[in-house]
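Example S7 (structure tokens).
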């Protein structure tokens, strides 16, 4: 297989991005559109989606807003039915929507409803999206690529984040099962595990907090949404045609191991 120019990697493809109203999801949608895909952006905030679509369309990229709630099965089912009716196919999907839970706290301080809300968005929402995305890919018979958004918190425990960590470990397992179930149908399923990325929450924490986080990253910086978007684009494209059932870590080396000890000068 020859390498394809990034501007043509997704030419003629139809791609879906959930949680696409801002941050990493918006960056992924832009990357897919830049590569030639017609991108469907979905999230609960229709106004924010419309703003993202307008920005993409103003530069000649193909994008459509279709609001949906990934925690609601009827909403997800209707979203994919709408994609089938309008576009007739789905070639790629990035299940990026996340949320729920509560601020960090020891496990015994988590209320059951907070734990359940993290699972509902981050794990059950991914299950619902996978279910109906795969049904459409099977119906059209073209195969496809699905990327689930995990986290480095789905690769190692993080104190205080019971619900979030449990949900992201679940995403890693769900990804592997789906990859095995549908490999013979030409449907690839992978996950991305971002480390610290400069999204709204970290930006709002201020420079001092960002400097502390950056100091814990072997590459010496916080990641950008475009770092994750580049990984998602590769996994969605035919460039990764022999990759399925894996989690690609985008974390600046944080999970590689213990960094070298620093000696004082």
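Recovered sequence:
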């Amino acid at each position: 297989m020859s390498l394809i120019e990034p501007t043509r990697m997704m030419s003629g493809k139809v791609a879906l991005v959930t949680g696409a109203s801002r941050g990493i999801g918006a960056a992924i949608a832009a990357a897919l559109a830049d590569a030639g895909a017609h991108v469907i952006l979905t999230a609960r905030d229709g106004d924010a989606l419309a703003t993202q679509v307008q920005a993409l369309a103003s530069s000649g990229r193909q994008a459509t807003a279709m609001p949906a709630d990934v925690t609601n099965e009827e909403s997800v089912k209707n979203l994919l039915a709408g994609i089938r009716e309008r576009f007739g196919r789905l070639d790629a999907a990035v299940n990026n929507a996340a949320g729920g839970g509560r601020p960090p706290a020891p496990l015994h301080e988590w209320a059951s409803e907070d734990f359940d809300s993290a699972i509902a968005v981050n794990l059950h929402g991914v299950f619902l999206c996978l279910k109906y995305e795969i049904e459409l890919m099977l119906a059209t018979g073209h195969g496809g690529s699905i990327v689930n958004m995990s986290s480095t918190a789905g690769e190692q425990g993080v104190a205080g984040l019971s619900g979030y960590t449990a949900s992201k470990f679940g995403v890693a397992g769900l990804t592997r099962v789906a990859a095995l179930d549908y490999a013979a149908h030409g449907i690839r399923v992978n996950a991305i595990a971002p480390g610290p990325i400069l999204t709204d929450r970290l930006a709002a924490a201020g420079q001092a907090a960002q400097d502390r986080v950056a100091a814990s990253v072997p590459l010496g910086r916080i990641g950008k949404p475009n770092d994750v978007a580049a990984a998602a684009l590769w996994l969605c494209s035919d460039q990764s045609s022999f990759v399925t059932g894996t989690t690609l870590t985008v974390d600046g080396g944080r999970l590689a191991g213990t960094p070298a000890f620093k000696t004082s000068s």
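Notes on this example. Residues 45 and 222 are 27 Å apart (CA to CA).
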